[in-house]
Amino acid sequence: MKTSVTVLGLGAMGTALARAFLAAGHPTTVWNRTPGRSPELDGLGAVRAATLTDAIAANGLVIVCLLDYASVHEAIDDAGLTEKVLVNLTNGTPAQARSTADWAERLGAQYIDGGIMAVPAMIGGPAASVLYSGSSTAFEQHQHGLAVLGRATYLGADPGLAPLHDIALLSAMYGLFGGALQAYALIGSEQLSPTAFTTDLLLPWLTAMLTSLPRMANDLEYGAQPGAAGSNLAMQATGFANLIQAAEDQAVSPEILLPIQELLKRAVAAGAGDEDLAALLPHLTR
Ligand code: NDP
To answer: 60, 147, 166, 263 — which has fewest CB within 10 A?
Structure first.
């Protein structure tokens, strides 16, 4: 017998979550603030609750995926959460997750926070991953059901851990994509093909460079070997000026790169010129 589940919020992501539960045979009750959203779910067997209170009352496992935490608190008042397992897959900060966990637990619920590392089309497929933290009892009870959404990784009892990792991964992604946008702007400034550039040069380059991340992580954890830097920061700071100047010359804004240049300059001025990129980290933490 598959666990019955309630999904609150039928935006692009909530709809994908409900679809995945239905496809895996979980009886699924859905609710959305604006009624009638995602009508295709009705044909897949979803039960549409008339009110949010009815939706929460319908099942012990309640998944919420709204725009932000303010929406979650606005939508779910203090009624009906007693003895429920509330799994909040809304994107938010560690502090928001911790205070929402306190709120839910005061109301008698077990709370799990989650970070969805996927876009809606990936949900239920092999590339989808969802990070969880919070009540270990509730996670153990529901991990098989939650696994229908994507690979389920439990990060610990502190509810802030899933959003912390989620935000860390998104920060890395935006940094990478921001850099790719800068590259496309430069290529575009000479009317060159972004598709050929991507296939022939950008993807192989990034793939090769990403292999240096484990070494950087190792340096951060255990300390870099003195004199081991193959690409010292003083050299990188000098070369980085060319990234800024070339952008200006090509009528491309260097605004995405300027904060990295500032960081490099600060680190070199503080005496880290002989070290490698990992030496930037102390200049990034407050
Ligand atoms: P959408 O904009 O498609 O949907 C937003 C949902 O939030 C709708 O169901 C909307 O209801 C509801 N909502 C907004 N404000 C309120 C409120 N005050 N009270 C009740 N319901 C409200 O967003 P997504 O579904 O794409 O995203 C949902 C969450 O999932 C976000 O936190 C997002 O960051 C996260 N996420 C999304 C990803 C994506 O690629 N889409 C990827 C990973 C995470 P209504 O229909 O009534 O407006």
So the answer is: 147
Number of domains the chain contains: 2
Write out pLDDT tens, residues 233-280: 999 999 999 999 999 999 999 999 999 999 999 999 999 999 999 999
Q: Do residues 12 and 146 both lie within one domain?
A: yes
- The predicted structure's pLDDT at residue 153: 98
Which range of residues forms the domain containing residue 19?
A: 5-159
Which atom, in ligand 1's list, is nearest to the CA of 15?
A: 25
* Cα of 20 from ligand 1 centre, angstroms: 17
> Of 159, 190, 214, which residue constitutes the final position of a domain?
159
Give the per-residue pLDDT at 60.
Answer: 97
Of all protein residues, whose CA lies closest to atom 33 belonging to ligand 1?
A: 91
Query: Residue 227: its pLDDT value, please?
Result: 65
CATH of residue 148's domain is 3.40.50.720
- Closest protein CA for atom 34 of ligand 1: 91
Cβ 66 under 6 angstroms from ligand 1: yes
Q: Whole-prediction pTM value?
A: 0.94
Q: Look at residues 55, 43, 47 and name the one whose alpha carbon lies nearest to residue 27.
A: 47
Starting from the edge strand earliest in sequence, which strands make up the sheet with 28-31, in order?
47-48, 28-31, 5-8, 61-64, 85-88, 110-117, 129-134, 151-154
